[in-house]
């Protein structure tokens, strides 16, 4: 695929970045090297079939000065996250970084080791454990801690421990209350759409290089191995709760509703080490991730950071997190946590102040300025979240999608709107001409807006598509935010080469198996094609023989409703008896395998399944 060089407008913007940000401050580079013990060579991890699921060596090009095609600030961050291997945090605490999007941490106990956040895939987690053991010996795993409910913090569990060891009590799984429910719901309810957009966000289909993916800000990218989950044997519910694993005390701080719905911090008194999960990393994080999620609460987030400062600020000698590198020394920890706290609090408070002046989210995003200290703090730069999209998320959280202007209450959808704009401007050729003029003057945002309308009005117009791709490239080259860059370049890739679908999958069977019966039935309700089901009036009973539970399921007016109750075959068209795993298979479309007993009219089940659809992991994004 032919890619363009950076235009003079972008090169000038890159020079400006170099002039205004404190590049002479190299403390982070010292921190990222500190305690390095070794790494895997080559930096490639494969699955059992020989498929590459992680390639750290693919980022070896990230070295030296920033090329013109990468924002110098993002290049600096990419230099830092490209460093991979095993690191000593303090004696007894070790961390593997750069073998997945997230970190895995090993805290040595009296006779073994406690593992924190086992990455996304079992293959990368197994490689990280092997690297740790190569340097620290074959210490048995005593417990695994999941800090929160995102897949990069539990997915690799089967690379660390098997279910037998957990079932026997040999290994404990410790997690914040509600983690499993939140984890599986995120990967099921809107999982298809989130997965498709995550391919854009992490640059899954992009080549690595100065004109391609250079990292996602939070880490390089996501691994593509086999994820799984094991339910916790110990749920943490209360701040201040202390739990001991193999002689090591762990003091917990609950932090729900922050970066994840279920999240917690914890402190190891033995090592004077504080784990901040994903609530204090070396970037501004997302309040609304570009892949899609519920809007996070920066007010609560900042309050939990304040609580962490008060509880642990005078006790911790080192702070580590589930991404990036640690922070050592009480003074640096206080500065770091204080800046992170002030960052989220400032965005929250100032967005509310400005929206109460009548400003919309888009207007606030253009107008808001960070205080000079935060603007020049590397840990507060927008490599993963951004001030722009976080401010809009805060506006959305409080005010919703509508900005109050009645002309924007009922606009046409994108394709119909595009056709009208293009006609008003004078046709696609005229739109492309105007976009070319904007491109040539460096107004890439306006060029992208015009060309978005052009390709939605005429998707096959080659000139519009190529200029749109070139425009998105320039926006990518100038982006400080790693995920913005990936979005822009992914859009350019699809304009030139076609839809790349969803390269990564998070709805692994091991994760789906943890769905509750209620979540399984919710997933069926979401799959009902409403208009097709308008005229159906169905009732069926489901008996889960392995859980001794009965559910009445009805479908009326295109709505599937379930209620747990005693079975009443007389009023149901059909009764199903099966286990929960067999129900999972049935929901996936398997009506013929053994283990399903049907009493009554089987056509009721057939009628129900006939109106169930599946999400489309290949839906268009940059084209209609």
What's the CATH topology name of the largest domain? Metallo-beta-lactamase, Chain A
- Given helix and strand content, the structural type is alpha+beta
Strand order, main sheet: write it out: 1-4-5-6-7-8-9-10
Work out the oligomeric state of the chains in this entry. Answer: single chain
Name of the CATH class of the largest domain: Alpha Beta
- Count of distinct structural domains: 2
Our estimate of the beta-strand percent is: 15-25%
Report the radius of gyration as a whole number of Å: 26 Å
Number of helices: 22
Give start-end ranges of low-pLDDT stretches: none
Helical content band:
25-40%
* Shape call: globular
Instruction: Tell me the span between the first and last alpha carbons.
Output: 22 Å
Q: Please outline the major beta sheet.
A: 8 strands, mixed
The CATH architecture designation of the largest domain is 4-Layer Sandwich
What would the average pLDDT be, to the nearest integer?
Answer: 96
Total beta strands: 21
CATH homologous superfamily designation of the largest domain: Metallo-beta-lactamase domain
List the helices and strands and how they pair.
Elements: H1 8-20, H2 27-33, E1 36-38, E2 44-46, E3 52-55, H3 72-81, E4 85-90, E5 93-97, E6 104-108, E7 113-116, H4 122-136, E8 141-145, H5 163-167, E9 172-176, H6 179-186, H7 191-201, E10 234-236, E11 242-245, E12 248-254, E13 264-268, E14 273-275, H8 298-312, E15 318-320, E16 327-328, H9 330-355, H10 361-367, H11 372-375, H12 387-399, H13 414-425, H14 428-440, H15 444-457, H16 462-478, H17 482-497, H18 509-512, H19 517-527, H20 530-533, E17 537-544, E18 549-556, E19 559-564, E20 574-578, H21 580-587, E21 597-600, H22 602-610
Parallel strand pairs: 7-8, 8-9, 9-10, 14-15, 17-20
Antiparallel strand pairs: 1-4, 2-3, 4-5, 5-6, 6-7, 11-12, 12-13, 13-14, 15-16, 17-18, 18-19, 20-21
Helix pairs in contact: 1-16, 8-9, 9-12, 10-12, 13-15, 14-15, 14-16, 15-16, 16-17, 19-21
